[in-house]
Write a structure and sequence with these properties.
Among the domains are: 326-363, no CATH class; 373-448, Orthogonal Bundle (Arc Repressor Mutant, subunit A), CATH 1.10.10. Helices cover 46% and strands 11% of the residues. It has helices at 17-32, 51-64, 78-90, 101-113, 129-137, 186-195, 208-223, 257-262, 267-276, 289-294, 310-322, 326-329, 339-345, 355-363, 373-385, 392-404, 408-420, 428-435, 437-448, and strands spanning 4-7, 36-41, 70-73, 94-97, 143-146, 154-158, 162-166, 175-177, 200-204, 234-238, 241-243, 306-308. Strand 1 (4-7), helix 1 and strand 2 form a beta-alpha-beta unit. Helix 6 (186-195) crosses helix 7 and helix 15 packs across helix 16 (392-404). The structure holds glutamic acid.
Length: 450
């Protein structure tokens, strides 16, 4: 079987870590099996959908490396939904309802007040033809509900949650179309999943009860002649994402992809983290999507919420950079920075943008601290002792050690401060050759006050 998955965002806002996690998992599931990953823009709600968010979704997915194999927009498929609607209506599975939002709200409150579940009472189904005609004559346009088959228990084996069971009598017939003819999410999504041959519906567990309803919609559509294979997709509902302390953090967790990108995170740091949190697998930095896909297993997902920890994202970002090859990052490094410089500085990076600061340390000018007289004398000795070999740092430090008796911090720190202007940083053995003989000697002389 070839696998087809889809990511189906509504273009009503920017993508954030919660929904890119869903996109990523659908991508990885498809790629692992050489399948197809589709982007479906759920833009039936014309009032809330915005074109700028459609573009933003495409850009964000591209930045993350989640390139879809195909794209569809629900707003361009309305005829198909109308055909499905007509077929289901002809089959007696859709009925008009005339209650106002206030009336429905009141019904719900009455039931809840009596301690009963707020299930729609199907009053509209009991209307006679004459009563319906009367409503229509009074200018009341109906909204439309899908009629659940109350005798058909709803069961599926969820690829994450295991066996699921719903009693349709405990569910309200879902409203699928508004009085103005516009579509709610429920029917178009099922129609599209059938029409696009979606084999795996992988989404957040906030959709579990929608799945219960949609399984009956799928089945009714099959019976009405939709779909060639007439098999339900495999459903998988992942536990929601929460922050380290429960709620998603104000800092990173609630940020849009655009902001995380602007903050300088590596896309593979985000995907490495989001691919594995909530699973039994360790979170490790991955440099390639193929490796993430190869290890992706729905069976490894747990039922407990997945914890998104800002500090972990920062850690993964750093770990990724520490092992990143020059070619991977070259295009984003300061002009002139070569592979040797990259190798010297990468262990000190948390974010790639810090490469610029270290490049300045190498190329200069740098700002040195004021040294006490004894260090100035020592640094003057260093300037004289600097002999340029293939490996000048060990040569310099052992010569100075012998000449001055200094060792440890008193030996190394003034040298580092004079040569880099910093107390900490990359390995001096790698840095010194990059600074170069003349520049290094000049820095030592300035520090010595020579
Ligand atoms: N547009 C829906 C959402 O963003 C899609 C849900 C689904 O994957 O079916 O919640």
């Amino acid at each position: 079987m070839t696998i087809t998955t889809r990511f189906a965002p509504a273009p009503t806002g920017r993508l954030h870590v919660g929904n890119i996690r869903t996109a990523l998992h659908n991508y990885l599931l498809a790629k692992k099996h050489g399948g197809t990953f589709l982007l479906r823009i759920d833009d039936t709600d014309a009032a809330r959908s915005e074109e700028r968010f459609v573009s933003a979704i495409r850009e964000d997915l591209a930045w993350l490396g989640l390139n879809p194999d195909g794209e569809a927009r629900q707003s361009e498929r309305l005829d198909l939904y109308s055909r499905a609607f007509d077929a289901l209506r002809a089959a007696g599975r859709i009925y008009p309802a005339y209650e106002t939002a206030q009336e429905l709200d009141l019904k719900r409150k009455v039931l809840l007040g009596r301690g009963l579940p707020p299930i729609y009472d199907r009053a509209a189904l009991a209307l006679s033809d004459a009563e319906r005609a009367e409503k229509e004559a009074a200018g009341i346009a109906p909204h439309w509900r899908f009629k659940l088959d109350q005798d058909a228990p709803i069961v599926w084996d969820d690829a994450i949650r295991g066996p699921q069971h719903f009693d349709p009598a405990q569910l309200s017939d879902p409203v699928i179309r508004r009085a103005d003819g516009s579509w709610l999410y429920m029917l178009p999504s099922a129609v599209d999943d059938i029409d696009m041959g979606v084999t795996h519906v992988l989404r957040g567990e906030d959709h579990v009860s929608n799945t219960a309803l949609q399984i009956q919609i799928f089945t009714a559509l099959f019976e009405a002649g939709f779909g060639a294979a007439k098999t339900l997709p495999c459903f998988a509902h992942e536990a929601l994402l929460v922050g380290a302390e429960g709620k998603l953090s104000k800092r990173l967790g609630s940020l849009g992809v655009d902001e995380l990108r602007a903050a300088g995170f590596e896309p593979m740091a985000l995907t490495s983290l989001l691919a594995r949190i909530g699973t039994s697998q360790p979170v490790e930095p991955h440099h390639e999507m193929e490796a993430l896909a190869a290890g992706f297993e729905l069976a490894d997902f747990g039922r407990a919420p997945a914890r998104f920890d800002d500090a972990e994202l920062v850690r993964i970002n750093a770990a990724l950079l520490h092992r990143a090859e020059f070619a991977e990052v070259a295009a984003r490094l300061p002009a002139g920075m070569d592979a040797a410089a990259w190798h010297a500085i990468r262990p000190n990076l948390t974010m790639l943008c810090e490469a610029g600061e270290w490049w300045k340390v190498i190329t200069g000018p740098i700002e040195q601290p004021d040294f006490p007289p004894e260090d100035r004398t020592f640094l003057a000795q260093a300037a004289d002792a600097l002999v340029w070999t293939d490996d000048p740092w060990p040569a310099l430090t052992s010569a100075l050690k012998q000449a001055t008796g200094r060792k440890g911090k008193p030996l190394f720190l003034p040298l580092r401060q004079a040569l880099t202007g910093r107390d900490h940083g990359p390995d001096m053995g790698e840095l010194l050759p990059l600074i170069g003989a003349d520049e290094a000697r000049a820095r030592l002389r300035i520090a010595a006050g020579m």
